[in-house]
Amino acid sequence: MHLLILMAVLSMSPAAAAIISSNDADQVIGDLLKRVPLIDGHNDLAHQIFARKKNKINDLDLQNWTEVHTDIKRMKQGGVGAQIWAVYAGCSTQYRDAVRACLEHLDTIQRFVYKYPNELQMAYSSQEITETFKKGKISSLLGVEGGHCLDSSLSVLRMLYQLGTRYMTLTHNCDTPWVTNNLRDRNATNVAGLTQFGKDIIREMNRLGMIVDMSHVSKAAMVDVLATSVAPVIFSHSNSYKLAPHTRNVQDDVLLLLKKNKGLIMITFPSSFLDVSGEASISSVADHLEYIYKLIGIDHVGIGSDYDGTPSLPVGLEDVSKFPDLLKYLYVNREWTVTMLEKLIGQNFLRVFQDVERVSKSLKGMMPLEDRLPQSQLVNTTCRSAEY
Ligand SMILES: *[C@@H]1O[C@H](CO)[C@@H](O)[C@H](O)[C@H]1NC(C)=O
Ligand SMILES: *[C@@H]1O[C@H](CO)[C@@H](O)[C@H](O)[C@H]1NC(C)=O
Ligand SMILES: *[C@@H]1O[C@H](CO)[C@@H](O)[C@H](O)[C@H]1NC(C)=O
């Protein structure tokens, strides 16, 4: 018997323990993961490949790469049905080589997906996630992490969409000329949210069918995005600010706006976003999930692990193989029903993605936006040619 389940069962009333045995729970979670794809909203494996291997994967065994949180063997153990991989570039690239750094990242992800065609497959739509899942492969989707990857260009945004990216996190931990990031909230006084150009970016993402991701942005930007986007938006990896008052997390008033928007918050595992003390466990993740679904409803929660994007993870959730332990914990200890778990692991994300796709179709008559951000609004133009 799994130790965690043993402890869980011992802490329950004898009647409840008799109803849910560990074997039953294993069976229920196993069946669940075969029926509904577990869609993880955020994984930084590609950043590890860059940092440790300079993007070289030909000699890297991604079936079994034990140095990091993620490899294919453990993704299978973890029942991962779809992974959104972060296309990330550090903020130091802003105004310099951000577009190149992001494209290299995207290329790395595409190459590792193509290297393992029996296990991984690119997916660019909600329907492709479902189809790939039926074939028993793990869907791989692309999310741009950091609006600085655009170098303030709507043209670059459109080209990133054509290359297959399906969400964009508007910032990493730095402002862009058109939106502010969460670190601003540490000195929160009159933080501006989105500029007019920033609103154009949101409108163009709505038109393209690219999901707007508000993890990492400032609170003012969250409020502005929610007033601008005509499609549901997400937090791909953020938690409740009420339970862990960190600027990366989301305050209750914004969560209520997210509910109105029919959007989604995908709960994330870095320990300090679960508990500002930095000490966290599976039960901390359950606490955030429970707090948020009681506030805004079960239709608005998901999972966005941030594996390989953080050195510090909760006890019991050390790598991608551990998702079933979280689900078992919710089922056995927190009395989550199978219906709730289905929504959490995948159905909610699929619904949001479908809504975003529907909004895009409905905007077919809209012309691509053409405004250019004047160079006078860039913080640093050293690397710019005057005529561009
Ligand atoms: C996986 O990698 C580890 C560390 O390099 C090694 O000890 C182990 O034997 C490998 N397992 C398989 C199945 O190749
Ligand atoms: C916050 O204010 C302090 C003191 O004025 C300053 O040093 C720091 O850079 C500010 N942080 C941000 C993120 O603006
Ligand atoms: C602007 O960018 C250049 C090139 O990256 C750099 O050398 C310079 O220090 C930057 N200037 C400022 C004010 O940040």
UniProtKB/TrEMBL annotation:
Primary subcellular site in the record, as a coarse category: membrane
Record family assignment: Belongs to the metallo-dependent hydrolases superfamily. Peptidase M19 family.
Organism field: Helobdella robusta (Californian leech)
One Pfam family hit: Peptidase_M19
Catalytic activity: an L-aminoacyl-L-amino acid + H2O = 2 an L-alpha-amino acid
Enzyme Commission number: 3.4.13.19
This protein's GO CC annotations: side of membrane
Coiled coil: none
Membrane topology qualifier: Lipid-anchor; GPI-anchor
GO terms for biological process, alphabetical: proteolysis
Record note on quaternary structure: Homodimer; disulfide-linked.
Entry keywords, A to Z: Dipeptidase, Disulfide bond, Glycoprotein, GPI-anchor, Hydrolase, Lipoprotein, Membrane, Metal-binding, Metalloprotease, Protease, Signal, Zinc
Protein name as it appears in the record: Dipeptidase
Signal peptide: 1-17
Localization annotation: Membrane
Listed cofactors: Zn(2+)
GO molecular function terms noted in the UniProt entry: dipeptidase activity; metal ion binding; metallodipeptidase activity
